C-alpha cells in the first residue's frame, strides 16, 4: 500500500511550482494493492510458459471443519497431492461415450493460498490445468471438463479421506 511512512518522491512542475507527493509502496505480497500487482506480474510471466492448448482454472478447497489441520505444512502437501491425483484420475476418461481409460500426461501449475480475500485461514490450491493431455505417442487428447465437475468433488474427498485413514494424525 502506498503510505508516506514508506517514503515518497516529490514531483514539482517547473513552470507553476505545483508539487505532487507519490508515496512508495510497501511491496508486501499480503497487501491488497502490492500483492495484486505482484500476482498479475507472475500470471503474465507464467502465461508465456503455458502450452498453447485450452486450460481451466480449478480451485481445490477443504471443508471449514478441517482447515485448522492444514496450518501444518505436511498437510498442505496433502492438498497439493490430492488435487494432482484428482485431476490425473479424472482426465483418464478422455471421452465420456467410450469410457476408455487413457493415461495422459497433463500440464498443471499449482499455487497454495492459505488465506481467503477476507484474510481468514482458508487453505486452498489454485490450479491451471490443461484440458486434456498427451498420450504415450505424444498425441494431444482433448478432455471435456464439463463432464468431470461432479466427479472431481468426490475424488478429492476420497483422496483426502484415504490419506487420513492410512496415517496417524498428531
TrEMBL record:
**What range(s) does the Transposase IS801/IS1294 domain occupy?**
107-156
One example of a Gene Ontology biological process annotation: DNA transposition
Read off the Pfam families from this record.
Y2_Tnp, Zn_Tnp_IS91
Full protein name: Uncharacterized protein
Taxonomy of the source species: Archaea, Methanobacteriati, Methanobacteriota, Stenosarchaea group, Methanomicrobia
Q: Where is the Transposase zinc-binding domain?
A: 3-62
MF-aspect GO terms: DNA binding; transposase activity
Amino acid at each position: 500500500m502506498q503510505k508516506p511512512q514508506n517514503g515518497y518522491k516529490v514531483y514539482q512542475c517547473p513552470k507553476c511550482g505545483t508539487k505532487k507527493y507519490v508515496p512508495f509502496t510497501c511491496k508486501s505480497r499480503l497487501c491488497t494493492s502490492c500483492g495484486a500487482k505482484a500476482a498479475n506480474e507472475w500470471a503474465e510471466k507464467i502465461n508465456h510458459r503455458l502450452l498453447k492448448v485450452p486450460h481451466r482454472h480449478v480451485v481445490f478447497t477443504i471443508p471449514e471443519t478441517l482447515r485448522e489441520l492444514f496450518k501444518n505444512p505436511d498437510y498442505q502437501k496433502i492438498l497439493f497431492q490430492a488435487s494432482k491425483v484428482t485431476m490425473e484420475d479424472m482426465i483418464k476418461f478422455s471421452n465420456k461415450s467410450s469410457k476408455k481409460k487413457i493415461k495422459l500426461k497433463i500440464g498443471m501449475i499449482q499455487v497454495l493460498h492459505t488465506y481467503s480475500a477476507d484474510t481468514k485461514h482458508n487453505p486452498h490450491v489454485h490450479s491451471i490445468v490443461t484440458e486434456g493431455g498427451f498420450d504415450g505417442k505424444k498425441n494431444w487428447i482433448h478432455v471435456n471438463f464439463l463432464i468431470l465437475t461432479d466427479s472431481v468433488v468426490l475424488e478429492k474427498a476420497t483422496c483426502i479421506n484415504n490419506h487420513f485413514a492410512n496415517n496417524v494424525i498428531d
